[in-house]
Specification:
The protein is α+β, with helices and mostly antiparallel strands. It has helices spanning 3-12, 19-30, 36-42, 48-60, and strands at residues 64-68, 73-77, 83-87, 93-96, 121-124.
């Protein structure tokens, strides 16, 4: 999801594209898998509470995905379905799109639960760290 699509989705949800929200979106477009501190460093004119609220709003609209990759929360634009391989040594994060999970085969023990999404993180060592 690029900036134009994210703005359209935000406005479609009834929210304004304020300068603060735009700054956070631009920061997310620059790089995936950022921590809150990294996002904040890219838009220092936006207050910390506003960054938190903006990330929550963008997450609820399906524009941003919050990830926990072992070193705290990280954020990325929710562009496409993909998963992550994380190097436990250097922290490098790479993405892969081929999904080994079949949603139809997930446990269906609760009739009142509808699967909408899933994530998969694979931990190991990258080629440079082996």
């Amino acid at each position: 999801m690029r900036l134009g699509a994210a703005i359209g989705k935000m406005r479609g949800g009834g929210y304004k594209a304020t300068p603060q929200r735009m700054a956070v979106l631009r920061a997310l477009v620059e790089e995936q898998h950022q921590s809150l501190e990294e996002i904040r460093a890219r838009c220092p004119e936006v207050g910390l509470v506003t960054v938190y609220r903006t990330l929550d709003l963008l997450g609820s609209l399906g524009i941003v995905r919050r990830l926990d990759l072992g070193d705290g929360a990280r954020y990325e634009l929710a562009e496409n379905h993909h998963h992550h391989m994380i190097c436990e040594s250097c922290g490098d994060i790479s993405e892969f799109e081929e999904c080994p999970l079949d949603p139809e085969r997930l446990p269906s023990g609760r009739a009142d639960f509808e699967v909408r999404a899933h994530s998969l993180e694979v931990y190991g060592r990258c080629g440079a760290c082996r």
